[in-house]
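This follows on from our talk about sequence and fold. Can you supply me with one protein entry, sequence and fold together? Could you add the entry underneath, on a fresh line?
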Amino acid sequence: MKKFVIKSTFYLLGLLFLAYGLSLMGLYTLKRSQFFKPSFLVNAFKPGEQFKLAVFGSSRGLASLDTKLIADELEGLSANFSMDYTALPTAKLMLEHFYAQGYRAEFIVISVDLPDRDTSKTVISENDYRFLPFRNESYVQNYYSRYDEGLVKPLAASGSFPFFGFGYYNMELLGPTLISSIKPDYRYQFDELGNFEYPDYLGMDEKPEPRNFQTALTNPILKEIQELTIRNSSKLIIYIAPYLRDEINLLESCPYTVINHSRLINKPNYFSDYIHVVNSGKKIATKAFIEELKKLE
């Protein structure tokens, strides 16, 4: 029995060391790649790069603003760091990541969605595992500790035990790791300036019954973002991308500079669903955004 226990312990320790080593190698490979947005931010631009404009948000910010078109109209580098299947807390994390890596921007654009206008759910977003290569950064660890919930907290535990996060999200990480080891410049569904578009053939045929909302954008995370941009000498712009169904009216007490395009586009053929514009709608939204931005320069 004693020999069995010793052998079992030895094999278990061996497996743990192997898992630890493989997870470190995988996360290092992803950290040196451009596959996901957090690594793209670090590896696609020069250290200390100065941006004219940087966009942060969810898939709506990703689908609605084309930073190539913005760069064509305005002098300076513009990029979209929005990430699909995330919420406002992740946008703040990405902004912290942006500043911590030494970048600066004249304009910071935060795309805000309906669920985040006044409060945000205190849970991990679906794609927050993409920050795992930077798990030892204090702002990432603070985020994981704050939002990771449940009995098993693989992201929060990954600072000391990276195989927890890599193992838990193995289906999402193994493929990207293999691709990145062969082609480190490969980007997953976005171009060299972080843009993604929904093709026009996805346009809808019918418009749903409208809904109306009022807000002063009282989400405390927006206040934290504002303080972060002030400390880093950036001008904050809150952007509300087009909705097919929803109209958002801002109350006078809203303390932010806001470009509200919730009702900019009303035709369903410009939307792939109720909340995302297709490429032709993206061009309309971006051109209108540029005109509003010029007034703020």
About this structure: The CA atoms of residues 230 and 236 lie 8 Å apart. The chain is about 45% helix and 15% strand.
